Amino acid sequence: MRGRRLSRVCGDMLYIALTFAIIGLFLFPVFWLIVSSLKPLGLLFSTRITLFGFEPIFEYYRQIFEVGFLRFVFNSVLVSIVATALCMLLAFPAAYAFSRFRFLGKNLFFGFFGLTQIFPWIILVTPIFIIFFFLGLSNSYSGLILIYIAVAIPFTTYMLFGYLEAVPKEIDDAAVIDGCSTLRTLFYVIVPIAVPGLVASATHAFIVAWNEFLFALTLITTTEKKTAPVALATFFGEYGANWGEVLAAATVTTIPTLIFFLLLQRHLLKGLTAGSVKQ
Amino acid sequence: MPVDHREGVVHADQLHRANPPSMRQARDPFRLLILSVLLLLFVYLLPPLYNLLLSLQDLDLFEMTAVGGGKFIGLRNYVELIKDPVLYKVFLNTWIWLTAVTVVLRIILGFALAVLVDADALRRWHLTGLARTLLFLPWAVPPVVAVTIWKWMLNSQYGVVNLLLLDAGLVESGINFLVNPNPYITWWSIILPIVWKETPFAAIVYLAGLQSIPQELYEIAQIDGAGRLAIFRYITIPLMRPITLILTFMLTIWTFNNFVYVWLTTRGGPADLTHVMGTMVFYQSFVEYRLGYGATFGVFMVALMAIFAVIYLKFIFKRA
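YS: structure for the whole thing
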């Protein structure tokens, strides 16, 4: 009995080691990015592979902050946070309407929300660029925020819809019987229950906005309003890149999403996969 | 307004009967939806319509003076599009290299990784959560960063991939992956970041699917004498079919429309060997400054997507 148990423990350990070795290999690019950004020039441009055991330097980080990379990070933070907040404010009532009401055109609206998810964003860029130009919205934070809200709303609504479907409808009924209006029910009764769902979808919306490249590239034309991803792309010159700075900038651009992701991934994973497995 | 509680109950109860809460005031859902719907119409309906108009015009980026300021030229953009020798190549690039290859790789790798993590050995030691989090991590990395990392790893002189190939004696000098006259090699510098960054999503969806299979199903099969391989072949794989179907479909659409990976890696080059539909729209509009012709490429993309939209909507309503 004991022998079998021991062999199972050994088997488990072997399997776990193998699994984490494969996952480690899969995550190697992230590790390599950070390690490379800390290497002195001699090691960075070397034909020998060095993984550990060198004195890390922060020279490239100092250089990118000197040319004002923090400004781009600030722009990204501003745009992503405002867009996320407004997106939640719009998407939550929408999800609630889909979950709790029957109304004329419900399927039409629900389908329209879904269609936006498969819409080729690239074809929106040219017309939006021109429309924004004439509305005076080009090259402004508010224009970009407006787009990011619209980009995030449909999926956020679907995710929240999934959560709300799991909240018993008797709860709202009780609130209504006690004389709450729809909006009061929504904000005082449902929001507190749906916090995990809100957290998950807000994380998702934030990461979508933070990572977005196409609209940030076309709608923002002055340097000081550029977001971090676009600024990072401009670090590649015409004929090559200053790799130390590029890698440092890439690391800085990744940190905020990684922090959000690691803090909130539990909620996020549940929300992202809930819809796909339910059959 | 303070209401006598008991009276309120009676009153609300009567209301309740006449008008069940699930069908409350008819105006409510519209008030809740109106802002979202207006914004979505402004961003997803108005621009495509304007795009259609643009495709009939000749408009230079630096000559935008009034709304619809372009010259109407009828269907001349469409004639040019059909005759454009690049179109055929771009179309094949988009379907085969950008979409088919990366979607197949993501489905296979994603499923394999999910099976790897969904194991009793990890569950017994409470490591499933950690493994899942680590596996999902590249999903949160911005695409720009994914491309940056791979550009660095594939660097012809100092890239770790070339250094490993050299050490193994597989090549004599570093391969220039990014600018290579052989498009098959250049394409891999685009495919690798896509597969690396986007596989976690497929893996996580599969993992959730695997975890939703009732444990009893496996136990019954075991009692009936089925081996591990048989269980995998006759229970796991068939049960994952619907997920594979939806996932393949969604990944195909998202990838077909993608612009960012190709643009950031090669800008469609060298020459125009790696251009795809997405980069062509951008290239015509914002590099050649031909907004009208760029819009025509866009209309072509929408027409292709319309076919997919019909299938997609069926999915949504089946689920809702």
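YS: worth flagging: Chain A has a mean pLDDT of 89.
IM: good catch. Also The two ends of chain A are 42 Å apart (CA to CA).
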